[in-house]
What we know:
Elements: H1 2-32, H2 34-70, H3 79-98, H4 103-123, H5 126-148, H6 150-174, E1 179-185, E2 188-193, H7 196-203, E3 223-224, E4 239-240, H8 250-255, H9 274-295
Parallel strand pairs: 3-4
Antiparallel strand pairs: 1-2
Amino acid sequence: MEDAQNQINNAMGEGYNEERKKGIQSQISYLSGDSGTKMQEAYNQIGQWKASLENLAEQFKRNALSAVMSGSISSEFSEKTQARLSEMYKEYTQYAADGSKDAGAKMGALLAEAQAIAQDEYNASEGAQLAIQTNKTLAENIKNDAGLNQSYWDAGYQMGKQFSLGLASAIKDKSDDNKITFGLSNSGVVSIDKNPSNAITNLFGGSNGNIQSSGKNKFGFGNGYAVGLSYVPYNNFPTVLHEGERVLTASENRSYGQNAAPVITGNSFVIREEADIQKVAIEIVRQMNRANELAD
């Protein structure tokens, strides 16, 4: 059995090597030709640029420390930074002449502040900003590509569905006497049904295949709001969403319905006297307020 499996693995390895050699040879030809020469030139310039950034960061650090220890302040610093370094130099010389036990600690604190100033000056430099923007652009492009790629989204969705099925199957196989227990809270364990059709939804506090619309789910991380939620009370508010629902941003929620006037249809009002008009209006407002309270 083991020999047969080894032969299968060897066959797969041979097939991989044969096909991979083609790609390796193409890559060698690419890098050895005119394209390879251009790549070397490009990478040489990239290396010089990266080295220049490291040199600049070290230069800011040297100059900031020298300013505090010797009072020689470089003009490359901003006027505000130069003024602070001048103050730090005066403090440093005072502590150096003091000779007290705390003097060394205070001198060290000034040198640490100087290094922080140097890092801030470097981060504000044109080269450092370009490097930061380059990395941000790369991350943004990757995020947008993944978000807009429908096949990528579908793959994740299908994997999630299969994972849920696998979890339900494991619950069924490992359960005992139609029940299985999970240590999900500090107060004890939760028992859920063995039935795979209910295993996942019951785990989230539902019954008969439905997520509960109120009350904490059995994981203890949020409610379900089957009738909606007009306002999220705080950041990172946990909840359980349902298929087909929509979540609005804070800006969209603030403008939602602001310009929409209420329309009342399908009603017949019998007005016997002028006083009835006010009574009907008051009752309509009362019912509208009650509906809003229920929605909240």
